[in-house]
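retry 2 of 3: previous attempt timed out while embedding iron/sulfur cluster. Reduced batch size to 1 and resubmitted. Inputs unchanged:
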Amino acid sequence: MTAPASPRTYRVKSFGCQMNVYDGERMAELLDRQGIAPAADGEDADLVVLNTCHIRERATEKVFSDIGRLKRADGTSPMIAVAGCVAQAEGQEIMRRAPSVNLVVGPQVYHRLPELIDAASKGERAIDTDMPAETKFAALPARRKVGPAAFLTVQEGCDKFCTYCVVPYTRGAEISRPFADLVGEAQRLVDAGAKEITLLGQNVNAWRDSGARDADRRGLEKLIEALALIPGLPRIRYTTSHPNDMTDGLIAAHRDIPQLMPFLHLPVQAGSDRVLKAMNRSHSVASYLAVLDKIRAVRPDIALSGDFIVGFPGESDAEFEETVRLVEQVGYAQCFSFKYSPRPGTPAAAMDGQVSAALMDERLQRLQAAISAGQLVFNERSVGRTCTVLVERKGKYPGQWLGKTPWLQSAHFTGDVRIGDLVEVRLNEALGNSLAAQLV
Ligand code: SAH
Ligand code: SF4
Ligand code: F3S
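retry 2 succeeded.
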């Protein structure tokens, strides 16, 4: 392989969760600072960063096919960097199987990209999947211009070890970023044009102020309170939460902080206590429902969202039906649902009673029908309401705009507005995944 020259242009492709999207933006800022420019639309980049996700099956295979597709007609390739969770989990394997990959960088060390690119420019193949104690955030450049809805990673990693999940292995142990750093970054995002900030973490509600003594460590609601004091930040959200970390303080924040939007993504995964136990979720259906009751008591209009896995090893028909019943009972505004995917190295992958692909397909279809029906009911109940919408982008049709309601529904409407405006609309009609609205 010939040594690729120092890249002048780059493209970052992020897959997976919003935290990967955030990381992708930070890597782009880092490359900008190095004097490497984003490649124009439709143009080949000198450097391509594949920011990968490992959560479900064939993620690694997808990375290999993406790498293959980067080969140009003349047989050359751009400099290829594999980042993200597949890099962490399968870095050596990628290096071994894909000679066109120049460097591999894990999610905790992407601030070292510039050195790795230098090494690759000299013809070395560089791999760095360290999980160092010092945080990458301190080494990253300042935030640049952002859209009206921005992400801010406040917490990373997971100590929960659900038996199906790779995240504790790819992202490492739970760490919280310091309070003052986060307030500073939020202020800079607002200065750069953000009107809404979504606080991110694999277990965002496990965030604790790391500076303070154990006894008075502040929880996520204290961070939200501080962000609510930033002038020009009318909307705050957070995701993803774990049911066991939903403290009374955080629940009360949904009553007390007007900027905190009435939306809660709280994955439960299954409606059967036996399955939850086998998943090592450490909560029951009843304790999950008790959290929902508490939050509905302080914020009756809260929109709820969840994640579900069908076909976990050993899941019986009757146990699956309990999941469907739970969906019908809760009345979610939206949900994500997945077929169980055995992940290498996780305990569930070695469990007896793996469910057939055909049965998983059938269960997923049935569950998704229940979820869609619930979503339509939720959206139909909003019809006639007046609310604010944050204008995020142009719609499909001329003069049409798209934005989000406080309940995270997509609303579209026409009128004389600009991206980043918060406008009042009346919700007129529920259409599957979105609502037709009109300016008032
Ligand atoms: N930390 C969050 C989300 C982690 S990943 C939480 O605990 O809720 C996002 C979702 O992917 C999970 O909620 C789960 O529904 C799904 N997921 C994770 N591992 C999976 C696997 N092996 N197979 C199928 N779905 C999986
Ligand atoms: Fe994965 Fe469970 Fe941690 Fe969520 S709580 S990231 S599902 S191990
Ligand atoms: Fe995927 Fe890693 Fe996020 S596995 S879901 S990119 S934490």
